[in-house]
Amino acid sequence: MGDKFAVNYDLLLMLQREMNKLADEAEEGGASGHFLAVATGGDEGRDRVFGHEELSRQVAFFQFDSAKRTKEGVDGLRKFGNTFGSLAATLIDMDSQLATSASFSVASMGFSEWLGEKEAYESHQRKVDAWNGYLESIGAADYFHDHPEANIDQVCQPPGPDEPDNRPDWCDTHLQNWADDVRGVDGIDDRVPPHPGLPEDAPKPPTDEPPDRVEFSDRRGNAISSSVTYDSDYNIIAEESTVTLANGERYTTLTEYDGPPNIVESSYSLHPAGPGSAPVTAEAPAFDTRDYTVTSTSSDGTVTVEEVSIDDEGAEVPGAGTKTVTVTSVDDDGEEKTEVKEYTRAGPFEDWVEEGEEESGEVRPERVMPMV
Fold first, then answer.
1. β-pair partners for 253
2. How many domains does the chain have?
3. Angle, nearest 10°, between helix axes 170-183 and 53-138?
4. How far is CA 117 from the centre of its chain?
5. What is the reported pLDDT for 22?
6. CB 260, CB 238: distance < 8 Å
7. DSSP 8-state secondary structure symbol assigned to residue 191
8. How far apart are CA 261 and CA 108, in angstroms?
9. Are 262 and 193 members of one domain?
10. Half-sphere exposure of 206 (CA within 13 A, CB side)
11. What confidence tens digit (pLDDT) does each residue in 69-128 have?
12. How far is Cα 168 from Cα 156, in angstroms, rounded to an integer?
């Protein structure tokens, strides 16, 4: 995956820092700093510095006029610089989300393979146990313990007319069971269980735990690692991704689900001939009504927590919900600040709308009762 990272995050963040540095230097030239202190320090103080009243007054006029332009330039530089930072943060967030999604897909594929191996192994073990139990019931366990490669059909094959019958005594019971199964005596046809096959053909046991982690990296030293957490039934209940840049900066996203999936199938009523026409019921994608929390941590210490609550089946509109987004950050003065925003959505396929904002007005299908 060496060429998947087409964007140099380090360069974008460096551009942000350099633009802000340039803005700081520009402020020293007029909008703030030493020049501002002298130019606005009062007539008497300014006269002492420049030694000439008219020169002092012209400096004051110059500062007053240039400060406005300098401020506009400084603000522009900061805004331009922060654009690079925002772009880097956005791309990092996108990569993080893609990594989480990819981890889910890759983990699911790996999980399916692991689950297939596990089920094959356990199915074979059940056959082995059933066969060994059958051998025990007919008194053949010791024989096959001493002759593990023996085939029961060959061992119990009747001898020819002129051959001695050296078959073990339990062969009579086995052959009778087999014959009864063929005829379905008493409605039973599984007295003799399937033979599990040779030991060397048995499925290999899988690892104790399913795969839960995937990592990618590029040639610049950027890396993405993603992991999932399973419950006892192997449902994915948490996903975490970490983007680590070559310069050591880290961005993490942790999604924690409130229990196993709770899938609701639904339908929508459409009016293809226009309002008031006969409705047509159409299938809609199933959706998950689990509540979940997403915690994102940036390299600068900013923590964003999204707490999402989805209405379950039985609610007035299953799939509608609320979301609270809390952003905690530290400003340039070292002061911690917290911003909280509330969102709602009217249904499982609606957009999240911030409280106080109007909805987009997009016409959506009329929803009917969920079909479960």
1. 241, 296
2. 2
3. 110
4. 24
5. 63
6. no
7. S
8. 14
9. no
10. 19
11. 555 555 655 555 555 455 455 544 545 554 445 455 545 557 778 888 999 999 999 999
12. 8
